[in-house]
Amino acid sequence: MQNRDEAMQNRYQEVFQNARKLAKAGQYQAAINEYSRAIELNPEMVEAYSFRSAAFAMIPGQEQRGIEDAHKAAEILRARGDEERATWMDRQAESVQGVIEERRMGLE
């Protein structure tokens, strides 16, 4: 069983790191797809939700999904008793909301 868990964790890390590379290259939709795969492999890994949130924020019209991911990460962290990091994720959601407002102001 440990080998299977270890293999899953290794696969998660591989997919997650690929997603980060894609995001750094500005390929946000491809990164989102990879972060989604990472979440499927391990739905409790907060980092994948956090980074996917940031990638969604980079795509006009997808920001709300970024807010949802930040809130999901905060929910997981609160369930673990990590209020400090959960609060940080709430701030990330607020930051994404700010992106929405900035884009809206730019369109007016």
Overview of the molecule:
- The chain has a single domain, classed as Tetratricopeptide repeat domain (Serine Threonine Protein Phosphatase 5, Tetratricopeptide repeat, Alpha Horseshoe).
- The protein contains five helices and no strands.
- It has helices at 2-24, 28-41, 46-57, 63-79, 83-107.
- It is flat.
Give structural attributes.
single chain, 108 residues, mainly alpha, Serine Threonine Protein Phosphatase 5, Tetratricopeptide repeat, 5 helices, 84% helix, flat
The assigned structural class equals mainly alpha
- CATH class bucket: Mainly Alpha
Count, helices: 5
- In total, the number of domains comes to 1
Overall shape: it is flat
**Poorly predicted runs of 5 or more residues:** none
How much helix, percentage-wise, in residues? Answer: over 70%
Largest sheet composition? none
Look at the structure and give the mean pLDDT: 93
Q: Could you tell me the number of beta strands?
A: 0
Give the termini distance in whole angstroms: 57 Å
Write the layout of secondary structure elements.
Blueprint: H1 2-24, H2 28-41, H3 46-57, H4 63-79, H5 83-107
Helix pairs in contact: 1-2, 2-3, 3-4, 3-5, 4-5
In brief:
With 108 residues, the chain is mostly helical. It is built from 5 helices and no strands.
